[in-house]
Amino acid sequence: MTNKPYDAIVVGARCAGAPTAMLLARRGHRVLLVDRARFPSDTVSTHLIHPPGLAALDRWGLLSRVTAGDLPEITTYSFDLGPLTLAGSPAGCGFSGSYAPRRTVLDKILVGAASEAGVEVREAFSVEELVTDGDGADGTVTGIRGRGHDGPQVTEHARVVVGADGAHSFVARSVAAASYAEKPKLQASYYTYWSGLGFEHFEAFLRPDRALAGWPTNDGLTLLICGWPMREAEAHRADAEAEYLATIALAPSLAERTASATRVERLVGTAVPNYFRTPYGPGWALVGDAGYLKDFITAQGIQDAFQDAELCARAVDETLTGQRLFAEAMRDYQEARDARVREMYEFTADFARLDPPTPQMQQMFGAIAQRQESMDGFARVIAGVTAPSVFFSDPALAPTAG
Questions:
Q1: Over the stretch 370-395, which tens digit does the pLDDT of each residue have?
Q2: Helices 51-59 and 301-320: crossing angle, nearest 10°?
Q3: How far apart are the two ends of the chain, measured CA to CA in Å?
Q4: CB of 214 closer than 8 Å to CB of 223
């Protein structure tokens, strides 16, 4: 017996997949959302939602749910460069700051919102195979085959299958989605949560070949992350905790604060590649990290996922409602996605190399520190509110002739 086809099946129910499914269901489409995890559950994340991401949550009517309770607003981003500190406001898009919810909180809200919109949600469901009408990656994707926890294998069909299943996307791998503009992994970072650390804002400490940063999250905790270049990753893999603590010691004021704080969870580490993937093909699409990923040093991932979800859902809806041909709508989705993030992609990669600042950069940072307006502007670049090219075109930041 063949089940009635869905309009869309979304594989992956976190920050890209759940909103994509929700937005399609709100447009009246029949959507199945599946994920290997059960919610609430944790995942590696910076947690930060800059103002552009908050604006998306506000458009969806979910902002108050995410920011409820004890989650503090982050209204200042500071960057301790050693000789000087830049401290500015990330305000933009109608918001005065950012928030950093635990993923156990955020993802549960997003999945719940999808269900409320009419999405059929299947947790603890593993996709084992894409169903196609041809051979391998050359055929049109028509569905998925998989199983729930300890359940029988089932086959579900849809007019489009959306892969929102992250950097190691099964969907992208199955369709052999092409990558482009690739860059290698640039840094390895480790983080954990601290009680009693007392961070009220986003605080970063940049040292030669090292980056440290912390910010408040739920339950009065602070996420504290330390990173070093990939060329050192293997040397520190066996005892990452020792290097994590040694990195904290490079910022004495931070080390003093951690000495009286309590670490409450295990250390988590990761390094990510940088790439774009072609986000569509016959019967399939990619959204979020499955289609585009960059280093997390600028913490753009959540808001990128939200904005991708809106672009992808709009394109899929135009196809499902017969307004446009699939290839045409999805090509525009890809072009809009790439145009939106390409500049930040390059800026983030340069930042993530953790190279020591050149004399010209040191002079530029000194110029930024002279004006609060410039420090606010730099914070907004990191928050994805202002394009780097717009900010750095300010003549006041240009290095003088030496």
A1: 999 999 999 999 999 999 999 999 99
A2: 40
A3: 78
A4: yes
Is-contact 102 264, C-beta < 8 A?
A: no
The angle formed by the CA atoms of residues 73, 217 and 116, to the nearest 5 degrees, is: 85
Please give the structure tokens belonging to residue 6.
């869905």
133 within 8 A of 159, measured Cβ to Cβ: no
Residue for token digits 């108050």?
Answer: 64
Q: Name the 3-class secondary structure at 369.
A: helix
**Other CB atoms within 10 Å distance of the CB of residue 165:** 27
Tens of pLDDT, residues 126-150 = 999 999 997 655 689 999 999 998 8
Strand bridging mode 154-163 / 6-11:
parallel
Percent of the chain with pLDDT over 70: 98
DSSP class of 377: H
- Other residues' Cβ atoms within 10 Å of the Cβ of residue 219: 13
Write down how long the chain is: 402
DSSP notation for 29-79: --EEEE-SS-SS--------B-HHHHHHHHHTT-HHHHH-TTPPPB--EEE
Band (pLDDT 50/70/90 cuts) for residue 56 is: very high
3-state SS, 273-326, equals CEEEECCEECCEEECHHHCEECCHHHCCHHHHHHHHHHHHHHHHHHHHCCCCCH
Count the neighbouring beta carbons within 10 Å of the beta carbon of residue 189: 26
